[in-house]
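question for whoever is on the cluster today: can someone run the full assembly for these? two chains, 659 residues total. i dont have access anymore since they changed the login thing
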Amino acid sequence: MSNQGGVQYSKIAEIKGPLVIVDGVDNAAFDELVEIETTDGERRLGKVLEVGNGKAVVQVFEGTTGLSVSGTNAKFVGKVMEMPVSEQVLGRVFDGLGRAKDGLPEPVADSFLDINGAPMNPEQREYPKDFIQTGVSVIDGMLTLVRGQKLPIFSGSGMSHNILAAQIARQAAIIGTDDSFAVVFAAIGVQYSEAEYFKRSLEESGALKRSVLFLNLADDPAIERIITPRVALTVAEYLAYDLGMHVLVILTDMTNYAEALREISAAREEVPGRKGYPGYLYTDLSTIYERAGRLRGKKGSVTQVPILTMPSDDITHPIPDLTGYITEGQLVLGRDLFRQGVYPPINILMSLSRIMKDGIGEGSTRADHQEISNQNYDAYSRAQEVRALAGIVGKAGLTPVDLNYMNFGDEFEKKFLTQAIDENRTIEETLGLQWSCVSKLPKNELTKVKDKYVDQYYKE
Amino acid sequence: MPSNSALESTIDQVLERNSSEFSQSLKNSLEDAQKTLSDALPMLEEEYEKIISDGKKEADKIEKQIVGSADLEARNKSLLIVQESTEKVLEKAKEKIANMERNSEYSSLITKLLTEATSALNTSDVIVYTNSKDKDVVQSAVSNISGAELSNDPIDCMGGVKVTSKDGSMSFDNTIDARIELLKPLIRKDIAAQFNLGN
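^ ran it for u. tokens below:
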């Protein structure tokens, strides 16, 4: 940081895309907050990307439209960008830079935190465990979300990921404990109608009281998107580690974040990596995703559900590809299921929650949870094979057991997978539905569950 | 009338047979009805429990909604009070500062502000701006810094100085207005704590 913040420079050497190059700067620091003042007195925020040879490269969050080389001033504030935090942020709506957007004054801050977060000491990290109930059967039953986990949703354009995100935000809860729970919702580059939907949905369900919303709209400057997940995570960390709450952070849509990163990278004339994204995309994404977790000695936890839309539904695209390396599994929305009108259209065969086992079972959900989930996976996979076979040989060519599997597949999609957008199912209801589905199969086909569970839960 | 007795006996027989068939059929129907009823009972109970549980869920949802919005409304009102109080306190403080006596204590404050500004700019070749009221106090402080000049154009501020390098490329706003603006969030926190309106 510069020794003394507050120096204003008026020599602007160049304006290039979202970047402003300030001349004659000899005392600035990397990541330092900069206030850009336009000729008509408007103030915009930015941060220092590079310093050296008397120049500072400043990335302007609110874009450089309307700025000119003459008459623009850059004030180096002497500190990094900070987010004012306190318990009062709950129930509030902010813009992508963390400024109040609900017509109310800024919350009274308890402290001001660096939006880049304090790095977590790996030795202090605690393994994610304990169940978060989302009320969405396919997630709770087969792809369980665990406190401290990062579990992304891979979607495609036009699919129902935002409806699912809002439903999770409304319904998510921790069961069997009095610990406080909060949701931090960061919308990155979403349409106005979607932002309104998120807001209204939380207001009408009464969940806004325990939520914080950060809304960066599609027509807000793209560069602001770089900041939105960071301010959201800063608030989440404060709620989790200072106030001891269990916090679920939903980030949608991370693809827009990566696009903004690409824009800056191109303006800085960096050597492009895959599909033009910067070579450090993996590192940059990890600075966001790795802010999920639990810390030893701290009561709270930060759980992340980042949502990203895969361009052309391509799972090998750099964004889902690199995200998959960092996170602990993924929920993949299937285009076929979406077209059939199934909601939520989660393709369980492509999805996985890697640490599900640590959040379920006796004491957390129910003793038979893992086994009945495995049985449903197994049966649905077989049902898909049978459907493919029926496409070739016809239904008449199938054995009675094959037909049972076909029935199971239909039942699974209609009764278990399909759910109303305001239907909040308990884990008991979810497990009951899983048993109903597998009860379409003869008992001797249930090879993944112990006999005692079959005796107890199988529906004749 | 033998023929009549034979007819009566036949009728009795038919009646008896029909009656037993009828009572058997009645019995069967009763059994069927009882079976249907007993089969439907668990379904009915299940449906009943579902309706009760759905109703409870809905009631919980509505309760959450009402309590949540009431809590938020109360919190938002207190936030508006804090804001209003902060504005009032700041107005009063600004008024007090603007009218304060320009004594020796104030002179040393100006010297401190000036030194801070030149050190931030890393040069003493500067032009110093202040308001018309502080001109004399600032002039005496400026005279102690070689290369510094006091501008004849006064600026609109409560007090303090604004310093610009002579080539105009750098400036440092060390007016009292700028400092209050910088500290505003902390001042708000203190005021909220005074009124017990913060957290």
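summary bc i know u wont read the tokens: The longest strand of chain B covers residues 160-165. The mean pLDDT of chain B is 87.
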